Amino acid sequence: MTAEESLKLLLARDPSLWPDGNVSATRLGWLDSHDRYRSQLDELENFSRSLDAQRVILLGMGGSSLGPLVISRWSEGRPLEVLDTTAPGEVARATEDLSDAFILVSSKSGTTLEVECLLAHCWSKLPDPSRYAVVTDPGSPLLDGRLAESRQFPNDPDIGGRYSVLSLFGLVPAVLAGADTTELLDGAHHVDMTEAVEMGMEMARAASEGRDKLTIVGPHEFGLWAEQLIAESTGKQGKGVIPIPVGDESEGGPDRQHVEVNIGGLRDLGREFRRWMVATAIAGSELGIDPFDEPDVSAAKKATSQALADLPLPEVPTLPPADLPEWLAAEVSEGDYISLQAYLPFGFQTDLEDLRRRTRDLLRGAPVTAGFGPRFLHSTGQLHKGGPNSVVAVQIVPSEQSPGIEIPDRDYGFSTLIDAQAAGDLATLRERGRRVVRVESSQLDALVPA
Predict the structure, then answer these.
(1) Whole-structure pTM value
(2) List of E strands, 206-266
């Protein structure tokens, strides 16, 4: 099929572009959301001006959080803090003083465990509905209960989370943070759609030829967003394009393909958002998979729920940190990639990226990804479990957990929750026959010495 033929089917929302049984009938609202939601920008601007809060805290996971995280880099108004973690130290830092905060609760389903727990915690400290707003699907349980009197923004339900950045899930936080959303949507409107389709076809072609590691060169935040989009869309049925965000430092190798992203402002960002969504949808078509479902994401969620139902958590064996280089050398073969999975606060970002590079160098240029848990469970977690069995996972948990923060109406606090999420994902990876090890350390520079 030519690029022109694929584009025609995509714009016609023809489900025959993907395998039988795909869920595209309820997942293609993103194709024109950049135009449909333009009419609501004035309303959103008026709402933003009515608030006297000095900062915005967004409670969300996956597609509800990573898009706004990117947009915040180019915003010039209130600081936007994306809280998409259950690490108790990070939760404590972000919510210590909510006196100047407005809280945006963002969840497509309205039943995301992390969002429920973060909202319960924030509400215990700030039980004022006028200080909250919610973005969710129509019929979501978030529209009732404690947020019933808060400002509500029901989103188009025919938009999946990772394709939602140009809908209200991206636009509401963007406006609250002072971003020029007209520029963002203008950029999305002016996309060379044929080129975007060709990009997706090339991604899939390269993966089928053995170059399935996609090096993404560009801004770190955009790399995280693109990583989620590609990993969760293509990593299934033993197939997948494996995204490797590397910041501004390019990396090479015989199993690599490369895309460079240049973003000078919000117009460029809007264009890149839509370009990558089109390319990813087409890559799914070329690979013969459904890019809109996520069949393996629920496995770790179920394992977490089971662990929390059977408290206390059992002890999990760990590898001595000093033995990690030897373990990696024994496990990693040609064509593999390493996934560093850190259940640590975001303050370890620089240390984690340094560890990623040292691990890459130790293994002579092997592709290495790095992410924070539980954030990556809503992102690359699908790829790790449903994609090619080429992942070698290193789960990093702190040697000492931060002081516990209780969660209202739950039998556990955030320390127990994040421990259960790590244990649940570890068990799920092992059940899928993945190579995975756990190390316990809060000194990332000691795991793989320079």
Answers:
(1) 0.96
(2) 213-217, 242-245, 256-260
